[in-house]
Amino acid sequence: MLGYDWPRFHAAVNDLPAALLLVTVLFDIGAWLSKRQSLKAAALWTLWAGVIGGWVAVLAGEQAEDAIEHGEAIHELLETHETLALITMGIFTVVLVWKLFRSERLTPPEETGLRMLGVAGLVTVVWTGVIGGKLVFEHAAGVPTGMMKAEIENRAAGHHHDAGEGEEHGHGHADSAHKH
C-alpha cells in the first residue's frame, strides 16, 4: 500500500480529520457568534472533509489493530481507542447528515443541539487522541518486538556528542560531551 503497512497508514491519516473536526466546531461557534454565512459554509465543508477522513482513519485503524504485535495492556487500550473513535465518528456523522437533511430549514433549537453535539464530538476527538498517544508513546504499539529489543540495546549503549556537536545540532548541552 504505497510503501505503508496498516499501522503506518493509520498514523498518516488520523491527524488531519481530527484537526478538521476541531476547526469545524470552531467555525460553527464563530458563525453562531458573528452570524457570518462564510463561517457557516466553512464549518460544513470542513465537517464533510473531517467525516470522510475520519472514517478512512477508523477503517485503517481497524486493519492496523490486526497487524500489530500486542499484549493485554495494548489490547485493552486498543478497544477503548476504537470505541471512542466510533463514538466520535458517529457524533460527527449524525451532525453532517442532519445538517444536509435539514439544510436551510434548521430551527434555532436544532442548531443549538447540533452545536452541542459538535462540542461533545470534539471532547471525544481529544479523548481518542489521548488514548492513541498512550498506545504509541507509552506502550510502543505498532513497533515490532524485535525492533524494540534492538532499540533498548542501542539506548543502553549510550551516545556521546563530540566537543561542540551539541550546540551545532541545537541540543544546547552545557557539557558538549554529555552522555544520553
Which characteristics define this entry?
Four Helix Bundle (Hemerythrin (Met), subunit A); 2 domains; disordered C terminus
Q: Could you explain how this protein is built, in words?
A:
77% of the residues lie in helices and 0% in strands. The chain has helices at 6-13, 15-34, 37-67, 72-102, 108-138, 145-157, 165-168. The longest helix has 31 residues, at 37-67. The protein is mainly α and 180 residues long. Residues 172-179 have low confidence and may be disordered. Helix 1 (6-13) packs antiparallel against helix 3, helix 2 (15-34) runs antiparallel to helix 3 (37-67) and helix 4 packs antiparallel against helix 5 (108-138). It is built from seven helices and no strands. It has two domains: 6-139, Four Helix Bundle (Hemerythrin (Met), subunit A) (Up-down Bundle); 144-180, no CATH class.
- Name of the top-level CATH class of the largest domain: Mainly Alpha
Shape: elongated
What is the percent of helical residues? over 70%
Gyration radius from CA atoms, angstroms: 22 Å
Please give the number of β-strands: 0
Assembly status: single chain
CATH architecture heading of the largest domain: Up-down Bundle
| Structural class by secondary-structure content | mainly alpha
Distance between the termini: 36 Å
User: Can you write the helix and strand succession as a string?
Assistant: HHHHHHH
Per DSSP, what share of the residues sits in E-state strands of 2 or more residues? under 5%
Low-confidence stretches: 172-179
